[in-house]
Amino acid sequence: MKSIYGVVFSLMLTGCTASDWIDAAGGMMQAADQHEKDARNNRIKAANKAAGY
């Protein structure tokens, strides 16, 4: 319970709202998804190149 109060208190001090944190988390998840997609595409390209395509 103390950790919840600590998070709420720190949010109040920083001036960040819950929607700001949600937006930031969404941006991080999109970046991670894009990184995974790019890595997968690079592996496919390398495999195709090794296969002679």
Keywords:
53 residues, mainly alpha, 2 helices, 87% helix
How would you describe this structure to a colleague?
By secondary structure, the chain is an all-alpha fold. Helix content is 87%, strand content 0%. The longest helix has 33 residues. It is rod-shaped.
The helix-strand sequence is: HH
- Poorly predicted ranges: none
Oligomer: single chain
Radius of gyration using CA atoms only: 20 Å
Secondary-structure-based class equals mainly alpha
List the helices and strands and how they pair.
Elements (H helix, E strand, L loop, with lengths): L1 H13 L3 H33 L3
Short description:
With 53 residues, this protein is mostly helical. Helix content is 87%, strand content 0%.
